[in-house]
Design brief:
Radius of gyration: 17 Å
CATH topology of the largest domain: Rossmann fold
Strand content: 15-25%
Helix content: 25-40%
Number of strands: 12
Distance between the termini: 9 Å
Order of helices and strands: EHEHEEEHEEHEEHEHEHEH
Number of helices: 8
Largest sheet: 8 strands, mixed
CATH class of the largest domain: Alpha Beta
Number of domains: 2
């Protein structure tokens, strides 16, 4: 394996979104590039990368934004996402609250204060759009964009293949990333859906799971 791509919220953070230093220490011990992959906006992804001490290469907005020496935004589906948001907002009496609307360019983030199941049923009107609830925020996004598509593009920009990556995550929105990688890891607190497709499920949760996976891969000689 030539690189690692790792989710943020719930994977290298605790439930309160504070960084788990066990993950930080493990990731800093590596000599291979570490890519941050998150549903957060680009400026947040950059800040997280600096705090953790990783390569500065990031996937943001669930794959809609990638940065590896240059920034690329896939804005092709934003109009459809906006239309879906306006439709839902009407049905929820205009109470849906956008997160980071001034910085989010490829999808719409929402505060988790509404009935997501009902919203999913309503969004059958928009077959190209989906709602993803990460447990930290709700995202209205195109079905054509995900962390897997972001990983493929980042790999190209790095001169690698997605199969060259170890992918670590905890949420269903990490599924495509794990499936496309060469080795997928679900931390112990991961959603059952993600555990079902992972090559490895750690005993440890959050940062302890990340550290466990890194140690396992080092012992196997898969990374250094």
């Amino acid at each position: 394996m030539k690189a690692i791509v790792v989710d943020v919220d719930g994977t290298i953070t605790f439930i309160d979104r504070s960084l788990d230093c066990r993950a930080v220490r493990a990731l800093r011990s590596l000599s291979v590039p570490v890519v941050i992959a998150t549903g957060n906006v680009l400026c947040s992804a950059r800040a997280i990368s600096k705090l953790v001490g990783t390569s500065g290469i990031v996937i943001a907005e669930n794959g809609g934004v990638v940065e590896c020496n240059k920034v690329e935004y896939n804005t092709a589906y934003m109009k459809e996402c906006e239309e879906a948001f306006n439709f839902l907002n009407e049905h929820f009496n205009f109470n849906l609250e956008k997160l980071d609307p001034e910085n989010r360019r490829t999808e719409i983030g929402l505060r988790r204060n509404f009935d997501v199941e009902r919203a999913n049923l309503l969004l059958q009107e928009y077959p190209g759009v989906e709602i993803v609830d990460t447990g930290f925020a709700v995202h209205i996004k195109s079905k054509m964009i995900n962390k897997g598509t972001g990983l493929k593009r980042i790999a190209e920009l790095m001169g690698l293949d997605a199969q060259d990556f170890v992918a670590i995550g905890d949420s269903p929105n990490d599924a495509e990333m794990l499936e496309l990688s060469g080795f997928g890891v679900a931390v112990g607190n991961a959603h059952p859906e993600l555990k079902g497709i992972a090559d490895m499920v750690t005993k440890g949760e959050h940062g302890a799971g990340v550290a466990e996976a890194v140690q396992y891969l080092k012992e196997k000689g898969e990374i250094r």
